[in-house]
Amino acid sequence: NAGVTQTPKFQVLKTGQSMTLQCAQDMNHEYMSWYRQDPGMGLRLIHYSVGAGITDQGEVPNGYNVSRSTTEDFPLRLLSAAPSQTSVYFCASKSSYNSPLHFGNGTRLTVT
Amino acid sequence: KNEVEQSPQNLTAQEGEFITINCSYSVGISALHWLQQHPGGGIVSLFMLSSGKKKHGRLIATINIQEKHSSLHITASHPRDSAVYICAVRSRSGSRLTFGEGTQLTVNP
What we know:
- The structure holds two protein chains of two kinds.
- By secondary structure, chain A is mainly beta.
- Helices cover 0% and strands 49% of the residues of chain A.
- Chain A contains no helices and eleven strands.
- In chain A, the strands form two sheets. In chain A, strands 2, 4, 5, 6, 9, 10 and 11 form a seven-stranded mixed beta sheet that branches.
- The relative contact order of chain A is 0.33.
- In chain B, a hairpin with a 5-residue loop joins strand 4 (29-37) and strand 5.
- Classes of the chains: A mainly beta, B mainly beta.
- Chains A and B meet through strand 5, strand 9 and strand 10 of A and strand 4, strand 5, strand 9 and strand 10 of B.
């Protein structure tokens, strides 16, 4: 099993550009989520999904969209990138409500 | 005050030392997680606990629900233990995790 796979690992965008961060898991986990990690702050939840076809907002959803058309994939879309979205993004999944999280390796995004 | 506070923020130890990282939280919780973030950035889950104590190899996690406090201990520390250790809690009333800022541990040979 590959676990949770995130692509790309690094990305540089100009302000106003859009892009999609990909996340896929091969563990048949129902729960998937996106976090951002910024210096001096804990991981913050952007969006999450409790199953295919179901998504919900987290703590910092503005500027991001998600969809969950399959159990395996949970892409994160930046609609119009802003410098404030410069961060490291982590996708995570888990099998059930009270299970440990499995993280991807992260995507380092810089918006200039 | 943050919901989850970790101490210390930074910790430097010599190889072989016993290490303790602390996590205090302010809400009633259903579970507490300890995570390890490697220097390369990847995050792995070490423990999930709601009471008592868990042990895995040289790592021990304890939690005191009444005092709203958890500790992560590393026995016989090694340079490969150098990483950021993150505490996260799930409140009883919610489904989301709240994360601490992490403790940067450096173990020197």
